[in-house]
Task: inverse folding
C-alpha cells in the first residue's frame, strides 16, 4: 500500500529516524497497521517528468527487491535526489541497505552480516 496523504508525509518528515545518502533521503516511522506503506517524492528541480519518474522507478525497484528483509509496520518515505538518475544500480542498492540499517528497518542492524 502507498502513502498518499500529505499529513502522512509531513509526519514522517518530522520524525527523528532518517538516513541521508547521495541518491535519496529515507524517512521511517512505525505504524500500527501491521504492514509497510511506501511514499515517494521527487522535486521539480530534478528535471522534467521523464527524469523524475525514472528516479521513482529505480527507488521503487530497490524497495521491492529488499522488502522481505524489512520488519512489518513501518511507514517509509523516500525522497529522490538528482544523483539517482544516472548512478549505478549497485551503488544505490548498497546505499539503500545501509540507510535501512541506519533507521532500523532491517532486523539485527547488520552487525551479524559483517561477521559471517
Result:
Amino acid at each position: 500500500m502507498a502513502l498518499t496523504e500529505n499529513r502522512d508525509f509531513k509526519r514522517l518528515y518530522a520524525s527523528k529516524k532518517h538516513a541521508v545518502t547521495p541518491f535519496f533521503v529515507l524517512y521511517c516511522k512505525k505504524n500500527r497497521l501491521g504492514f509497510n506503506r511506501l511514499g515517494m517524492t521527487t522535486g521539480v528541480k530534478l528535471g522534467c517528468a521523464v527524469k523524475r519518474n525514472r528516479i521513482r522507478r529505480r527507488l521503487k525497484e530497490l524497495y521491492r527487491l529488499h522488502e522481505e528483509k524489512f520488519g512489518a509496520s513501518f511507514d517509509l518515505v523516500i525522497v529522490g535526489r538528482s544523483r539517482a538518475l544516472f548512478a549505478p544500480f549497485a551503488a544505490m542498492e548498497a546505499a539503500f541497505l545501509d540507510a535501512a540499517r541506519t533507521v532500523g528497518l532491517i532486523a539485527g542492524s547488520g552487525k551479524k552480516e559483517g561477521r559471517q
Summary: The chain has one domain: 6-10+21-106.
